[in-house]
Amino acid sequence: MSLKRMVSLKEKEVKGFTPKKSIFFYNLSNKMAKSIQKFSGVEKVNLSFDSSQLQTIPLLKLLERKLMRNLYFEKRKENFNENFELVYFILTNHSKKGSKLLVKLLVSLLERNRKQSLAFYSLTKIIESLMKNIPERFLGVKGIKVIAKGRFNKRSRTKKIIFQKGSLSTSKVTQSLSYSQGKAVTLYGGFGVKVWIVGKEKLEK
Fold first, then answer.
1. 81 or 102, which is more confident?
2. If you average pLDDT over each of 53-57, 58-62, 70-74, 97-101, which comes out highest?
3. How do strand 4-8 and strand 44-48 relate by DSSP bridges?
4. Which of 109, 110, 115, 124 might form a disulfide with 163, Cβ 3.0–4.6 angstroms?
5. Contact (Cβ atoms closer than 8 angstroms) between residue 54 and residue 17
6. First CA to last CA across the chain, in angstroms?
7. If you ran DSSP here, which 8-state letter would residue 11 be given?
8. Would you say 194 and 107 are in contact if contact means Cβ atoms under 8 Å apart?
9. Following DSSP, what letter does each residue of 124-177 receive, concatenated?
10. What is the DSSP string of 93-111?
């Protein structure tokens, strides 16, 4: 099967990036397209980078260095960098799928860790640190709420843990609200996970 890839990267529209970094994104996009083609089996992959998202990448690297002291213990945990970057892009690029991505991330953490409460608090600490330090003009959300309910740390009774940061009203349905729920299955029972994210702008229908 021949691989056909169409990569759109407008170098002039990406402010603050050198030609060397533009080539890096071009090579990265080709690798991503190849992986998508191999995974999905389709012959043609159209892949484009949004310049507004690319402009937030230097800020991400700056925040990583700045917050490492506060997140020292979280940094030592498995897949910390991937979790940090995913949460960052969810908070800076609000969309309908933002809450779904966060639910999948939390479900994965609960299923892979024996001490589920530590996994929950580790993720919420990353969210709290980023929301506190991301400049207002880059932050795409106004508030976020995460609820997890289940038998944390092999306890005999279920427990509900709630995390909320920012301005959020779950009783009122707005066009900027993104909601998702999921379930984590472990050896000691299931966990219900719910996420609400309210963005600054209205979501597209």
1. 102
2. 97-101
3. parallel
4. 124
5. yes
6. 36
7. G
8. no
9. HHHHHHHHHHS-TTT--EEEEEEEEEE-GGG-SS-EEEEEEEES--SSS--TTE
10. S--TTHHHHHHHHHHHHHH
